Amino acid sequence: MDSPGLTEGEQQMAQVYDAMYAARASSPITRTLYARGMGDVYPPEVDASSSCDWPLLGTMVANLRLSPGQQLVDLACGTGGAGMWLARALSVHVAGVDVSRTAVGLAIRRVPEFGLPADRARFAVGSLARTGLPDQYAHGLVCVDALGFERDRRTVLEEIRRVLRPGARAVLTSGRSRTSPTLPWKDQAEHVGLILDAEEARPHEPAMWQRLYALWLQHETELRAQLGDTQAENMLAEARTRGPNLQERLSLVVTLRRPED
C-alpha cells in the first residue's frame, strides 16, 4: 500500500490533525468526555474522536456484508479503532488510510490491542481523494465523519468507486442541515457510477453532540491544562459554533455499492 504525495492543502490539514492526535494521546480527558457524552452507546475499545458508536458499528456490520478473509478499507481511519474492531469481529483484513502521520503511527501501535496479526491490519498516510490503494482492492469500505471536511465530494466518491471491487459496498456517515437543499445521495452516487443501497437516519446523534459539546465547555480549564491552549481552543470553538445549530442537523449513514461489471 503506497503513500501518495499530499497536496499543499492536505499537508496543512495533516499538520492540524497531527497536533490534535498528539495532544489527545498525551491525556485521557477527551476519551473520558466522549464516554460521558455518548453514554452506554460508547464503544470504549474503538476510542474514536467521532460519532462512531455501537449503533453505527452494528449498521456497518449489517450493511458491509463481508465474508471472512476479505479486505476492508477504513478511510480517514484516525487511530484505527473502528476498522480494527470490524476486522476482528468479521475476520477480515483492514487497510487504514489517514492524512495524519501521527494518527497512522498511533493506529499501528494499537494493532496488538485488538489481537490482530500484523498482516491483517495495515495503515498508511493518504487522503480521501488519493488513498494510494490499488484499483478494485476492497470488498468493503467505511468512512466516519470525514466527508463533511471535503469540498470536492465527487472526487472522493470517484476514489471510493475506484477502490471498491464490483459488488462491494461503502458505508459512510453524512450530515446536513434540515433546511438547506443538497443534492440527494441517490444522485451523488449515480454521478460517479455507484448505487445507493441505503440511507438511514441517526436521530440520536445530534443530541449526543450537544451533550459532548456541553461537557467540553464545562471542562475548559481541564482541557487547557491537559491539551494546551491551542487544542483546547479548537474544541471550544467547535462547540460554540456548531452546538447552537445541532437542532437543524440531519445525521445519516449512507451505504453505496459499486455495480457488478
Short description:
The protein has 261 residues and is α/β, with parallel strands linked by helices.
H/E series, N to C?
Answer: HHHEHEHEEHEHEHHHE
Structure annotation, total helices: 10
Let me know the number of strands: 7
Radius of gyration, CA atoms, in whole angstroms: 18 Å
Model description:
By secondary structure, the protein is an alpha/beta fold. The protein is built from 10 helices and 7 strands. The chain has helices at 8-25, 29-38, 54-64, 81-90, 101-110, 153-163, 185-191, 205-218, 220-227, 229-242; strands at 71-75, 93-98, 121-125, 138-143, 164-177, 195-201, 249-257. Strands 3-2-1-4-5-7-6 form a 7-stranded mixed sheet. α2 crosses α8 (205-218). The chain starts with 7 loop residues before the first helix and ends with a strand. The mean pLDDT is 94.
Structural key phrases:
single chain, 261 residues, alpha/beta, seven-stranded mixed β-sheet, 10 helices, 20% strand
Secondary-structure topology with pairs:
Elements: H1 8-25, H2 29-38, H3 54-64, E1 71-75, H4 81-90, E2 93-98, H5 101-110, E3 121-125, E4 138-143, H6 153-163, E5 164-177, H7 185-191, E6 195-201, H8 205-218, H9 220-227, H10 229-242, E7 249-257
Parallel strand pairs: 1-2, 1-4, 2-3, 4-5
Antiparallel strand pairs: 5-7, 6-7
